[in-house]
Every structure is written in C-alpha cells, then in structure tokens.
Amino acid sequence: MVTPDKLTLTTRDDRVAAVPYLVGFTPTDSLVVVVLGGRKVRFAARLDLPHPSDLADLAVPAARNAAMIARHGSAAFLVGYGPADRVAPAATLLTTALTTAGVDVLEALRVGEGRYWCLCGDAGCADGVAYDPAGSRIAAEAVYRGLAPLPDRGALERLITPVSGPERVRMRTATYTALSRMAVMLAEVAVSTASGGQPVAPEHVVRAGIAAVQQAYESVARDESLSDDEVGWLTAVLMVPEVRDHAWITCDGSDAQRRLWIDVTRRAMPATSAAPACLLAITAYLAGDGAMANIAVNRALHVDPGYHLAHLLGHALRAGVSPQQWRAATTGTAE
To answer: What is the pLDDT of residue 333?
Structure first.
C-alpha cells in the first residue's frame, strides 16, 4: 500500500487512481472517504455501500463517523464504487453528515467500468470520463516502489487463510510438541498470582518467550522463514500474556513484521491463533492499513470470541483512533 505522505494528488484522475493504493485493494460496492488535513492525506476509510432502503438507519452512524473524521482532518473527498442508485444516496448522506461536522467535502465521485462521474450535479462536471488507472502517474510511482493494490478485499482475506493439507498436519504436530514443552516448563515452578487475582507466568517462561519473539523478528529481518517448530513454539509462548504484550509493544508497523505475523497467523492452529492475529492487526494498524487490521481482528474473534485484545483493537478501529494515538496510549510514546 502506498503511504499517504508519498502521494501527490493534483487531478481527479489522480484521486481516482490513488484510492486502491490508499485502502490496499480495488474496492467494490463501497464508499471511500479520503480525509485531508492541510495538504496531506490523513487516512482513507472504506464503508460498505448500503442499499437505499437502509439509508434511514445509517443517519446516526454517519453523523458519528463524520464527527470522528472531523477530529483528524478539515476536508475530504468521496469515491463510490457501484451503481448510481446506490452510490449517489449514500454519498449525499455522508456529505451532509461531514458538512454538518465542519468537514469540507471537496467532491464526490462515482467510479465504474473504467469511467468516473461527479455527483455534485453542477453543469460541466465530469460525466462518464474515461480513465486508465494502470497508466496514471500514481500507478507509475507505485510500480517504481514495487507496490500494487490487491484485486479485492477477498484477496486480502486470503493472505491469512489457514494452511491445509500436509502443512497443517506438520503444524499440528509442531504445536502439540511446543505446548507439551510449555507444560513441562510451567510445571517446574508454581505459577504465582498477581494482586488482581490473575496468574503470573514464571520468569523463566517469560524470558524464553521474549527470546522467541526476538529471534523471530531477527529472522524476518534477514528475510528468513521460520521452521514449523519455530512457529509452533512462538504460538505457544504467545499464549503467555506477558510474552504477547512484549510482542505487542514492540510491533513497529514494518513490512518485515507484517510478513512475520501473516505467516504465523496462517500457520497457527486455531487454539493458538488469536494472539498472532492480533499482532498482525497491530502491525497493520501502525502501518495505516485499516483493512488488514480489521480482517486480522475478525480472525482473532472467530477463533476466540472473548479475546480481550481483539475487542480492544476492534473498538479502537471503529472509533477512528489514529495509529499515533494507539501507540501513545499503549506504549507511552508517539513514535
């Protein structure tokens, strides 16, 4: 995904071409709001395109989202993907909510079949203008950096599809071995209890877990893949809250860590996959990739509906908490 500070959007063609890079994939049946602060793109948010019959129920959520957007930017433009009878009413509803919240809506466009239309209704506005996203300056900049949006949201979800076949059998064996090793380590020293009544893992278990996290970070930094045994052990130690929290606060949003947590989330067995999925969500969140962050949170909640960190992340994403605010609140640092 092209990061916002690397994009210069000077024309409508630029704006239309930039959206797939800003959200990480080519949207369908969506309304995308790109939020601007000064001369910079702050973030882009994708909303499912509602049916016209559902619009009345969306007035309150639209106002709430508009108030959140107003905290991060003073202007925005909208790009809708879908038929006119669905895009136009949704764009009008969101435009009204944003304007009421003090956000200047520069324009609203509808995109489809290689063309775009202005939705403001003024005479002389773009009406079915043909454009070639592959031939745009934005696409050329992305190609130069080796970046490309995925074809759709489903492709993003498939990045963390659980492994199957022989690989799954190997990972099941590796995970069983790792959990057995963990059980032996925990049995060596009685587990103490914190003042709040929560169990505290023995220090030697926490040290071993933190070492496994650090070794994993070092391996991906060298562009090395983890073995089945390494992934099995990593998912086992991440079940220890102190180890998971160490991994959480050392997430940095880098491409290397993104690759790590995608790989581990794919290969983890269901019982041990909530923690790596949340770590992927945090890494994506810090990189400004809200789509992947939401998908990873959903994966964690699918395997463990009560997983507290996944709920915390989900609330932050829905509330529009910026990555900088998240980092400041969870680590005490803004960078």
So the answer is: 61
* Torsion (CA) 28, 30, 36, 41 in degrees, nearest 10: -30
Half-sphere exposure of 27 (CA within 13 A, CB side): 29
Query: Residues, the chain, total?
Result: 335
pLDDT of residue 77: 93
Lowest mean pLDDT among 101-105, 138-142, 298-302: 138-142
Ramachandran angles phi, psi of 118, nearest 5°:
-80, 145
| 80 DSSP 8-state letter | E
Alpha carbons 56 and 10: distance in angstroms, whole number: 35
User: Which long-range CB contacts under 8 A does 144-149 form with residues at least 24 apart?
Assistant: 145/2, 145/6, 147/1, 147/2, 147/21, 149/1, 149/20, 149/21, 149/23, 149/24, 149/25, 149/26
Please choose, from the candidates 61, 60, 96, 57, the residue with its C-alpha nearest in 3D space to the C-alpha of residue 78.
96
Confidence of residue 141 (pLDDT cuts 50, 70, 90): confident
Domains in the chain: ranges and CATH: 4-152 (3.40.140), 159-331 (no CATH)
Whole-angstrom Cα distance, residue 265 to residue 160? 6
Mean pLDDT value across residues 123-128: 72
User: C-alpha 266: how far from its chain's center?
Assistant: 16
Q: HSE of 186 in the Cβ direction (CA atoms, 13 Å)? A: 16
